Amino acid sequence: MHPLELSAHLIDNGVSDTPPNRITEELSELADGVALIESFSHVVVVDSGDGLVVFDTSGAKSGPAVVESMRSWTDAPVHTIVYTHGHADHVGGSRSFAADAERRGDPSPQVLGHERLNVRLDRYAYTNGYNQTINMRQFGGAAKASAQLIDRTFVPRGTLRAGVTYDDELSQTIGGVDFVHRHCMGETDDHTWTWIPQHKMISAGDQFIWNFPNCGNPQKVQRYPLEWAESLRAMAAQGAELFVPAHGLPIAGADRIKTCLDTVAETLETLVAQVVDAMNSGATLNDIVHSVSVPAETLELPYLRPMYDEPEFVIRNIWRLYGGWYDGNPARLKPPSDAAIGAEIANLVGGVEHLIERATELSAAGDHRLSCQLIEFAVAAEPELHAVHEARSAIYTARRGAETSLMAKGIYKSAHADSQHALTGEAQKVKMVLSIGED
């Protein structure tokens, strides 16, 4: 099914019977002179009449296939690459575009991005090992990246940096097509969305991903929920007839686009308001996490399902944004070590074996939060004990099966992998599904 037909089916019927995030490397023409290549991330191509304007380049591994798909559609040179933001799955494929230009004898593409984008790439180089580790955990479920992976660069060598940058807004005319690039914040602080009036089209990047907004990732840097909502409101007011995100399906029709964007914006705005109201009343983070939620019917919408990020993580991120890292519990301001807590709890209950037994019972009963806490006390008290890792492995396998978001599943799978490593004495061989990530 054509991606525009599929998105209309999902939105108009309010169903989630087909995954909206497809990675096929196939090209679909969305309008005369506009094409989408579905990858991770997608690549949007606009023929300006004086060369191609390409939004994002996908990741390093998928870049060659993306270029091949583009070349099956047009032989025009690439004039400009627009990075919607600096995540590796959006910029890493640029070296394939550079190689394509060199092979054809074309000038190197102009690369455009927000002024913070190159700063982001510098930070990735500075924290390379950490980024490799967290993305192994998030996407592959491994406890940590291997030394071989850490020796590689998170943003691949040969990735093109932005040579044209802007601060708030930049208008361009390339060939016969106008482009208005606008900075926004949300998942990142270097995001660009672009209005293309001739096509009544918006290139949205990751401000809309056909999942609950990636606004709370527990392993990544600060996100900006109200600014994210503000950008969605601005896009909704633009009157676009074609809306193309970098993940998920493109959307056609002004009313349909406005409804989706306003709904996501309102969801974020409401969540922020509830958390901040609770903070202003003196609630602790624990109080808020266990009292604030998003209605189930909202999470059932095909473009708001918590399959990647989830509301609980966003709540914690809102707290971090407005309240810092202290969670309101004075015992956790300067806490004892995990080992000291585990040993004391084990002593109080009469031994680690009782913690293992009770954690296993709770897991079987579906009380995963308490089960995991108890098994962590046990492993902290006796980190070399075979029985504790057997139980821990089983408990986190069960918890992973009960979760919806990829982030939670990845972290719980990594806990399982860590205990398997402790049991076997060998690093569990987990193949990373995607050698990409976002920060």
CATH architecture of the largest domain: 4-Layer Sandwich
**Strand numbers in spatial order across the main sheet:** 1-2-3-4-5-6-7
Q: What is the averaged pLDDT score?
A: 94
Q: What class, by secondary structure content?
A: alpha/beta
Provide the number of structural domains. 2
CATH topology description of the largest domain: Metallo-beta-lactamase, Chain A
Count of DSSP E strands?
A: 13
The largest pleated sheet is described as: 7 strands, mixed
User: What count of helical segments does DSSP give?
Assistant: 17
Question: In CATH, what is the class of the largest domain?
Answer: Alpha Beta
Give the H and E element order.
Answer: HEEEEHEHHEHHHEEEEEHEEHHHHHHHHH
CATH homolog superfamily of the largest domain: Metallo-beta-lactamase domain
Using the alpha-carbon principal axes, give the shape: globular
Rg on CA atoms, Å: 23 Å
Relative strand content: 5-15%
Low-pLDDT residue intervals, each spanning 5 or more residues: 426-438
| Percentage of residues in helical conformation | 40-55%
First CA to last CA: what distance? Answer: 32 Å
Q: What are the SSEs and their pairings?
A:
Blueprint: H1 3-13, E1 27-31, E2 34-37, E3 43-47, E4 52-55, H2 63-73, E5 78-82, H3 88-91, H4 94-104, E6 110-114, H5 117-126, H6 128-140, H7 147-150, E7 164-166, E8 169-174, E9 177-184, E10 191-196, E11 201-205, H8 225-236, E12 242-245, E13 251-252, H9 254-280, H10 285-289, H11 296-299, H12 311-323, H13 338-349, H14 352-364, H15 368-381, H16 386-402, H17 406-424
Parallel strand pairs: 4-5, 5-6, 6-7, 11-12
Antiparallel strand pairs: 1-2, 2-3, 3-4, 8-9, 9-10, 10-11, 12-13
Helix pairs in contact: 6-17, 8-9, 9-12, 13-14, 13-15, 14-15, 14-16, 15-16, 16-17
